[in-house]
Write a structure and sequence with these properties.
This is ABC transporter ATP-binding protein. The protein has 353 residues and is of the alpha/beta class. The protein has 13 helices and eleven strands.
Length: 353
Amino acid sequence: MTTLTKTEGERAPSGSEAFLSVRDLRVRFSTEDGIVKAVDGLSFDVERGKTLGIVGESGSGKSVTNLTVLGLHNPKTATVEGEIVLDGKELVSATEKEMEKLRGNKVAMIFQDPLTALSPYYTVGRQIAEPFMKHTGASKREAKARAIEMLDKVGIPQPAMRFDDYPHQFSGGMRQRAMIAMALICNPDLLIADEPTTALDVTVQAQILDLLKDLQQEFGSAIVFITHDLGVISKMADDLLVMYSGRAVERGSVREVLRAPQHPYTWGLLSSMPRLGGDTAQALTPIPGSPPSLLNPPSGCPFHPRCGFTSEVGGNRCSTERPELPEGRSAACHLSGEQRSTFFIEQIKPRLG
């Protein structure tokens, strides 16, 4: 079998633990209605062997961020600024040829809907084997053997027989497993999972999450896990980034953020979740209003039109001054740390049980 090789890039500076480092990322799209500010000054790090969870409502910029890491935007309509460094190699300025060497090899993505991500015209096995041939120079025979090995690894029964099946012959859970096999066939150092369990029932969802954790331990990959489900994040992630209107509004370890959230938006997400064993007669507390338009985002804090705590800040600071997100465990909010702790303990925590 051909030995797997990886694209070598410039090494990260000594002392840097981040395998993926994103700094002040801004992604804008030109449309007939104007400029869409899909990502607006985002920064985060992902360490080797760790999982970063990214949560937020639809339109918060989660998927756009990770498609940008892969360089999958149309350069005619998208403008990307900032810095993306993967294992010491800067990606924003990378050429398409350089990105092709990385995609599927050093970094791979599991898409949300495998039925649309997989081509209906080719067998599942061929689609899994293709990136292995492209990046390693393996023969068709070697690639087929490797693809069957990966189908077996992700739990597809009778993998040698299913190699020649088409996507429509697989169940939803099996298609997602096939997507995972395709993403992992070249042993990527970074795996991006874009809501990979959204369309699956809870039993299959649990199996897929367990599979990803087991494969991460085996391959040592860093994972960026995108979802709107905080329950899934609590099971999967080491660190958590909460996004709103193209920006990060809170970050920290999963334990810190879920046990003692500091941002009113995170409070809203947690308060709107149903809980096992909770009072079935108690109504959920939805976040009022709708996510802001990315064509014309509000001034100041982007969450202030929906926030119930702006009056506690005083003046019109929330509507005129955009709060920044400091390094480390932090939240982008004008409330003081003492105010946030008090409001969470007295008003939010009793709702969470």
